[in-house]
Amino acid sequence: MAKNSLIKSIDWITVATYLILVIFGWFNIYAANYNPENPVFFDTSKEYSKQLIWIGLSIVIIWVIFMTDSKFYVTFSYFLYGLSVFLLFTVIFIGKEINGAKSWFEIGPVRFQPVELAKVATALTLARLMSRYGFTFNKRKNLLTIMVVWLTPVLCILLQNDTGSALVFFILILPFYREGLSGKILVFGLIAALVSVLTLIYPNAIILALIITGTFIFLAFNVNLKIIGTGITAGALGFALSLAVFYILGKEFRWDIFTITGAIFLTTHLAIKGFSKRLKVILPAMIFMWGAFSFTISSDYFVEKVLSDYQRNRVNVLLGFKDDPLGAGYNVNQSKIAIGSGGLTGKGYLQGTQTKFNFVPEQSTDFIFCTVGEEWGYFGTFGVVVLFVFLMIRIILLAEKQHSVFSRIYGYCVASIFFFHFTINIGMTIGLAPVIGIPLPFFSYGGSSLWGFTTLLFIFLKLDTNRSELIR
Amino acid sequence: MGNINRRTIVIALIFISIGISFVIKLFILQVYDPSYKFSAESNTRREIINYPARGLVYDRNGKLIVSNQADYDLMVIPRELKTMDSITFCNALEITMPELRSLFSDMKNKLRRRKISAIKPSIFYKQLSAKQYGYLQEKLYKFDGFFVQRRTLRKYEYPHAAHILGYVGEVGTQDIKRDDYYITGDYHGINGIESTYEKFLRGEKGYKYVLVDVHGREKGAFQDGKFDIPAIAGKDITLTIDIDLQKYGEQLMGNKIGAIVAIEPSSGEILTMVSSPNYNPSLLVGKKRAGNFSTLSTDSLKPLFNRPIMAWYPPGSTFKPLNGLIGLQENIIKPHSKVECHMGYTVGRFHQGCHYHYSPLDLRRSIANSCNAYYSHTFRGIIDNRKYGSVQEGFEVWKNYLVNFGFGYKLGVDFANENRGFVPNAKYYDKYYKKSWSSLTVVSLAIGQGELLTTPLQMANMTAAIGNNGFFYTPHIIRGIENDTIPSNFTTIHKTGIDEQHFAPIKDGMEMAVWSDEGTAAIARIPDLNISGKTGTAENPHGEDHSVFIAFAPKENPKIAISVYVENGGFGSRWAAPIASLMVEKYLNKDIHPTRKWTEKRMLEGDLIHGKE
Ligand SMILES: [Zn+2]
Q1: How many CB pairs under 8 A join A and B?
Q2: What is the mean pLDDT of residues B15-36?
Q3: Residue A412 belongs to some domain of the structure
Q4: Are residues B222 and B354 in the same domain?
Q5: A197 lies in a domain?
């Protein structure tokens, strides 16, 4: 391919978004390291200097990626996967422990986190497996292969004690869904994650869930499965909606209200169906369910009062809310203070006070978003959120344009991984997500993660240059 | 892109909904809800604590004993430190360069151990002198990160009553854990009434918020002082002590080891509580406290030990009136019952010695003469009373009278670390003698010896109960609290369980101990004042016996009950009785009668510590 046509076929809008994020990120790392009492313009020992080197090397990586033939990524995906699993496994034994996780190789001055390679390799391998002719999730063998490829790195990473990075892989359920995995499994996956958190927090929710399950089992024997399927979806929707409202408004969670809302959605749905299709069995089932609900809520109030403290404590420890030495929620609180203090327009570049002097922990890595919030205000944070959402949607829309299924699946994997990091990292700094220390793509300080995200994105952009070809 | 997959839309919607949630939450955080902005300002505003003046302390006559003096601490906020002109700084503080260096390395150490915060003020240099303060105030703008915090230190108007007053010092880590009112660097009462009445004396800290710029300089009040909280001064308290009597008692006890406790019987108010040797309370104020404290605590005479409430002594013969009362109540003796004594109490091969005196004696004269045989006889009568079935049961009856008189347990005086003394019970002897013991085995208790241990406070309280004909109020040091009432347990009456009519012969005996020709305490006679008392000599296995005296005056409706212990003072009549009588005379007559001036002089000059009398 001629060089000219390569340049023409690159999606420059995505590249521009990438550059804006990286450069804006660097300015924020500079600000986080800036000491107003000792204003040295440029200090080569500081993180921003190193980050500049990492950015420079990223450009080299991008160049190499573009110079490599797209077919290479298909052909070598299995090899890369094997290599990364091997590295993930060996790092458990010879890796260096940083912040409690044994996930770093250290060779002289160079530090490298194999999980970054694993993200790329797993995405490529899954894309290759799923793009094979005749692939469908309905074949047991296919499903099993996907599960093994998917969960092997997760297991290794969990053994490294790096839970945050392991969780990233679960977001790959989104590309699976795109490629034909049942929507119910997606909903169930989300509900399973939610319920496992629920049961730890709130015993009544288990009982209510059991009642609903019982009702469904009863219905399953009597009415057609499709109605039950849509019923579950309606219920889950009600549950999720009420939860989202509480979450965003910052109110204390009332799992019983969420469950009841879900049940109301479900009942409404079934009532309409039951009425239009003259299904007599739905009425007694609903009467049973609501009767059991009222009984549970009235009688178990005491149990809930007694158990809630302990249960809540457990879930806090589990989710990392208590994982800081200065007391529960200290980090999140400091982070919220820093972001909140930015106001609408921010304090101005380098004028932040909260994101200096370590009021906020990990201020140039996991909590870099605080600097944006404090110095650039709501304008800055709004802009960053919009840029990320734009980038992710841009990627999936580009993916949809791919002639090659391999490229499409890979694109979805890339967007999903960005999405997970974006959701957890920003969610954590504003108190909407548990404190799981994973970086914000392109923003957080660190070569390993910057190169990882850059590689992820630019392999996709390289594949995109061949969008009309079938890459095998 | 007309033909977009439905699943693509679902995924895009998931992305967008998270984005929207973030945008909403960020709007609430950054624009809608101002509370986070205020919290952030707490990092850029400086909180200045206004320390309230501690409550003043007065004596029972309204004389000011403890007040406050202004004091200035140099505070530091480590984060805000800059390079500075350390020579000017040293000159201002009147310290040398190495001293300054060690101050800084101290600060760094504390920072490293997280004892102090880098962003909050902590003390850099305690208690500037007025001169240092004046000089520093002018130059302070040159030293970023430093400011001066005003607080108050205690000022003692009299060099007396140190054990009663206690002292004030910095709170420790434990204190902060116990009470979240305190933060590092705060002061609190550590001993004496400063500790007991800390909650009243300390007041409430106030807070002032000032804005500081990036260079740590104050830029005026934060939001016009809207959030400032004024300090509330501590409450003044009035003590029951008479500071002049206290002073006199400390002078009389000069160069002697021991204790004086004087109580007003009708109220339980402690008029005087002397612990000797003592120290000037001003020694434990401010910067010099640490050094003086360690000097005092290593002194072999233990000047910090609060003897009136902490020292255990055997009561000796001063315990006889109580045994007489129990005998009367238990109907073992009558006032006219006579007991033979020929130089002691003899049963078979057992002999308890007594000094020479007329025999037989009735109850009154037995007290006046302090006859051992009389009380051995009475005590055994109580214990062996057949109606109680066993010696154990009889002993418990006797012990319970002691408990009713306030022995064996803490009285509940308003001082921490009061000692409960020791009253053995039947179980104790069962264990000690493997169950084979009789009234004769423990007969030394009859004359206040043996295992029995009491504090001077408990003895004064017993004397007050005798003076009151059978009741007492828990002895206490607090007389009044500004706009508050004293704890109710100090106004609750305690009955001793001895009927009122039994007190007359005992009091007669104590009167005779002072006034009759055969009495043991003629030295305590005060012209025109009806003082009654009882001498005692507490056995001391480590050296010369302790001189003990209890007394109350006047005989009817006594105004003062007193116990005096002089360690290694020998017979009660030698040191304790004259000192007690002088105290009583001073309190009731204000002046010492000319005929007793020589006694006063002998007492004031007597030195039992440095080996001369
Ligand atoms: Zn005798």
Answers
A1: 123
A2: 86
A3: yes
A4: no
A5: yes
Q: CA of A183: which chain B residue's CA is closest?
A: B7
Contact A295, A287 (CB under 8 A): no
The pLDDT confidence band at residue B45, using thresholds 50, 70 and 90, is low
Of A225, A146, A152, A132, give the one whose Cα is nearest residue A181: A146
Pairwise CB contact (< 8 Å): A248 & B21: yes
Residues 6+ apart with CB under 8 A from B401: B322, B325, B326, B329, B496, B497, B498
The dihedral through the CA atoms of B121, B126, B129, B131 has a sign that is: negative
The sign of the torsion formed by the CA atoms of B329, B335, B337, B341 equals: positive
More confident residue, B56 or B212: B56
A36–B29 C-beta distance less than 8 A: no
Asked if the structure places residue A471 within a domain, the reply is no
Residue B455 has pLDDT above 90, yes or no: yes
Beta pairing, strands B237-239 & B57-58: parallel
Asked whether A269 and A282 are in contact (CB, 8 A), the reply is no
**Inside any domain, residue A389:** yes
The CATH code of the domain that includes B332 is: 3.40.710.10
- Calpha distance A381→A355 (Å, rounded): 15
Say whether A430 and B29 touch across the interface (CB within 8 A): yes
Of all residues in chain B, the one with the smallest CA distance to A38 is B82
Of A181-195, B242-256, B388-402, least confident by mean pLDDT is A181-195
Do A47 and A141 sit in the same domain of this protein? yes
State which residues form the domain around B536: 243-279+305-605
CA of B525 relative to ligand 1 center, distance in Å: 23
- Residue A364 sits in the same domain as residue A393: yes
Task: State whether ipTM is beyond 0.85.
Answer: no
**Domain shared by A16 and A116, yes or no:** yes
Give dist(CA B356, CA B133) in Å, integer. 72
* Residues B256 and B381 occupy one common structural domain: yes
Describe the strand order of the beta sheet including A96-98 as a list of residue ranges.
A96-98, A101-107, A110-112
In chain A, what residues touch B37 (CB-CB under 8 Å)? Answer: 340-341, 343
Rounded CA Rg of chain B: 33
Give the tens place of pLDDT for each residue, B486-520: 999 999 999 999 999 999 999 999 999 999 988 88
Q: Looking at the partner chain, which of A37, A338, A385 has a beta carbon nearest the beta carbon of B19?
A: A385
Radius of gyration in angstroms for the set of CA atoms belonging to chain A, rounded to a whole number: 25
Does the pLDDT at position B611 exceed 60? yes
The yes-or-no verdict on residue A49 having pLDDT over 50 is yes
Residues A26 and B29: their CA atoms lie apart, in Å, by 24
Q: Which of B14, B36, B82 sits opposite A341 (nearest CB)?
A: B36
Q: What letter does residue B495 receive in the DSSP assignment? A: E
Cβ B571 vs Cβ B339: under 8 Å: no
Question: Cβ–Cβ of B8/A397 closer than 8 Å?
Answer: yes
> Quick check: B243 pLDDT over 80?
yes
* Domain that includes residue A148, residue range: 3-177+324-464
Q: What is the pTM of this model?
A: 0.57
The CA distance from A113 to A119, in Å, is: 11
Token output for B420: 């409960």
Three-state DSSP state, B528: coil
The DSSP secondary-structure symbol of B545 reads P
d(CA B425, CA B323): 16
Domain co-membership, B456 together with B587: yes
Most confident of A153-157, A412-416, B23-27, B223-227: A412-416
Query: Where a domain ends, among A307, A341, A366?
Result: A307
- Range with the poorest average pLDDT among B205-214, B266-275, B356-365, B574-583: B205-214
CA–CA distance, A132 with A135 (Å, rounded to integer): 6
Tokens describing residue A346 = 């921010």
The yes-or-no verdict on residue B572 having pLDDT over 60 is: yes
At A323 the pLDDT is 39
pLDDT confidence of residue A361: 59
